[in-house]
Here is the input.
Amino acid sequence: MQAIQERWLPVWDRLAPFASGRPDDPRPKKYVLDMFPYPSGDLHMGHAEAYALGDVIARYWVQQGYNVMHPIGWDAFGLPAENAAIKRGAAPAAWTYENIEQQKSSMRRYACSFDWDRVMNTCDPEYYRWNQWFFLQMYKRGLAYRKDSAVNWCPTCQTVLANEQVVGGLCERCDSVVTKKKLTQWYLRITDYADRLLDDMQQLEGNWPDKVLLMQRNWIGKSTGAEVQFAVSGRAEPVTVYTTRPDTLFGATFFVVAADSDLAAELAAGTPAEADFAAYLDTVKQFSEMDRLDSSRDKSGVFLHRYATNPVNGEQLPIWASDYVLADYGTGAIMAVPAHDQRDLDFARAFDLPVRMVVEGGEDPLLTGVATADDGPHINSGELNGLDKADAIAAILEILAERGTGKAATNYRLRDWLISRQRYWGTPIPIIHCATCGEVPVPEDQLPVVLPPADSLDLTPKGTSPLGAADGWAVVPCPKCGQPARRDADTMDTFVDSSWYYLRYVNPRDDAQAFAPELANQWLPVDQYVGGVTHAILHLLYSRFFTKVLFDMGLVDFTEPFTRLLNQGMVVMDGSAMSKSRGNLVRLSDELLEHGVDAVRLTMVFAGPPEDDVDWADVSPSGSKRFLARAWRLSGDVTSPVGADFETGDLALRKATHRAVHDAQLAVETYRFNVAVARTMELVNVTRKAIDSGAGPADPAVREAAEAVAVMLSLVAPYTAEDMWQRLGHQPCVALAGWPVVDSALLVEESVTCIVQVAGKVKDRLEVAPNIGADQLEALALAQQSVIAALEGRGVRSVIVKAPKLVNIVPE
RNA sequence: GUCCCCGUAGUCCAACUGGCAGAGACACCCGGCUUAAACCCGGCACAGUGUGGGUUCAAAUCCCACCGGGGACACCA
Here is the structure.
């Protein structure tokens, strides 16, 4: 096996079967993309699976005659490089490039069908200068801005995080409990694109996993309702609340403002509640994001000794401050309708506040403790009485509009994307802060703003960017006024890098632009994207956002970057994720050494549906190896010459071959790669029999079958397939041999087994012509001795005929 | 708690719009090869589709309930 690997690698290097850059290539294009790896150490089992699957698709389309672009690169910025630098003293760049070289060489040995002319790394200044360029374009368009806000802070990573990087209150990288910190940070205005991110998902329906679309929908979290203004005692301006149930306005019995909002502090000031409020706010601030998410926690709050006036009935509603209302959603204030909102009801019951039902139906929530959310005729609601929910909402919106105290409104859960990071190994933000001129963008002709070398810096996390301490780098003249000014010391979230890398592949060494629009429009959108479901929200949402911005800039003519998405499962061991600490780590290098590249790839592909996890304890790489040897042996047994006329070959074997090719093709196109492998195994088995005890090794059909096996196998086991191809008398590369053309005449069976049932039970089998007529088949079935016996003299009520496969006779 | 997906031989998995439950593989067992074992080759066998109802001439497939597993959402007003 090792010998075969050594033999073919140089040949493939020379022939470069997967180069996709020829401008005069007449083949139609396909873009197959694997999510690019982070270079932390060598490739592992997970990479092996992902790239084996992506390769099946890429190699299949090449066999089908497409000019397939299947590029690879490295998502090379990020914390692990920096942590390695701190721990071992290696410079982040050196550590990163070393790992990239190692992964690259492993991928080459793993025979990934990448176009090696297109390789690029996001940590190269030639790449990240375009991050900076995009940032400036967004800045110009008002899509990049700085604001002071309470942000997510990971105390371990010592940096801020985007909302998307906080999972269940924990940092998605290191699982530390995330805290809040008030900081001025850079944001990208992804919320401007919320509706388009939502609406354009229609294009992806059926081509992306439903699960991913659902997660994105949930994340964007669009809700429709109304904004209603409440006059507040002792305050000139009314306070606006957001509600999805304006129809329950008459059921509002109190009013709540987010404890950590500016409004709460303002309302509490100068009231008897001021001290209580201050104490409460202190306790609220103790809570981590984790605690806050615990919805089983008892409701807490402070009455602010103030009142809000219900605009529809003039009622005075007591204003409370509580942490169950979020400062940064809606307006940070709500009208509480305890009868029809569970959270409000919990609060009302905790503090003995009144509950008034305004929608008929169900029991009194005050007694049951369960708020009713059902539709029904409205009661206790003035003009809304008798109306159902939809009508009541329409009516109340009209009433509020008339009085100028409210209007329809939409809200999103999605927040703007916080991209500043207080770490070193990332893209510097191309802004200069000048005491006189304020924020000044770095002029585009001065890009890239290159990272200063790490060796002169202290990378230890201190909560502020290490770049700020690099005076020689940070202090520059202001581009506007020339006075000394300071560079922005933060670096960008590495998800910025991966939000557009799929565009860079079209001409990765272009130093005049991020990508050539005409090439991008020619190659993109990506026809097939392959990667893990861990990026269901983060990377995929950001990439979709970037694509839409680029569309608006007129740089691309499509609005969605990835037409089809396949989420491969994970490789696990004994039912759980592999990890060193769990002691169930399987090393890819060991497996490759023991079984060979082809067997490992085949095992990954054959293990089951690609979306499912592969449990390495359940699969058999040695079985894969055995099969490959069996297949390979076929190539040595064929004695007919190259170019033998298949048409003269054994018909039964020819049919089996064409059937197998046809079925495998169908299976590959529907992601059922394991089934495609099974069809190949089947063909190997019948070919073996044909050689040993059938048509014999000289029959041209045996050659046809063996060649088909080689081509089918080339998607999964490139070394074995190439070697077979040569032994069959061909020149390399089998990867370019072309998918066998299926002769549909050979798919037609000359006879079909027809099942004859009586009352649904199988009573007989008939060999019939595939084109037999229904009447003829029915007559034939009814004439069978077995049928007559089964009927036991009963009459026939009806006969269901599905020619040519089935007849079911229903007795009286 | 709500919603979604999945339960098929000892194991991993197949089964086109409902139409013979088995394509493929692992393990086991039995043969062959071998002085013997391993490797290798050949072969047999193994479930009636989580449970209980329903629809249908016919259900792994459709519907309902429950059990088990996985996932998404879960103070977003």
Notes: Chain A has a mean pLDDT of 91. The CA atoms of residues 569 and 612 of chain A lie 5 Å apart. Chain A has 28 helices and 32 strands. The longest strand of chain A covers residues 144-154.
